[in-house]
Design goal:
Elements lengths: L6 E6 L7 H6 L3 E6 L3 E7 L3 H11 L4 E6 L4 E6 L5 E5 L5 H12 L3 H4 L2 H6 L5 H8 L5
């Protein structure tokens, strides 16, 4: 799926205390469920602030969440010590984001260093990554 301009896709995991009611009240739509701990979400632009607040509050340490739109990719990391870092992907922070993805996900850095194709390898993000972010189809 390719979201409309200023809509975001988000794969949510590592937030078991985040209720479906809270997501609905924030204006977030569940597109897909992958078991009990992974949700594919559509986040309208006017719901991004509320969704990010929910993620910052409910995400367990050692996880991250991302929001992918045709225009940008946002990352919210909750480090193992509970510190939260938020980024909008750009050339200046790409290496830091790649390192955090590698550290928290356990994937080798060579794999996460190619962030666009790393995300495009996930079928939930593939279309938007290829069409709008220059990832190569696989």
């Amino acid at each position: 799926m390719i979201p409309q301009s200023r809509e975001y896709l988000s794969l949510l995991m590592g937030a078991p205390s985040l209720s479906m009611t809270a997501l609905r009240e924030a204006g977030v739509e569940v597109l897909e469920r992958y078991g009990e701990n992974l949700l594919g979400l559509l986040v309208p632009s006017d719901s991004v602030s509320a969704y990010k607040e929910l993620v910052r509050d409910c995400l367990q340490p050692g996880f991250w969440n991302d929001l992918v739109s045709p225009e940008e990719i946002i990352f919210i990391f909750k480090l193992r010590d509970g510190a939260v870092r938020e980024y909008v992907l750009d050339d200046e922070n790409r290496a830091e984001i790649s390192a955090l993805c590698s550290e928290l996900n356990g994937d080798p850095l060579y794999k996460t260093s190619d962030l666009l194709n790393y995300f495009a390898a996930n079928s939930f993000y593939r279309d938007v990554m290829v069409e709008h972010h220059g990832a190569e189809p696989r």
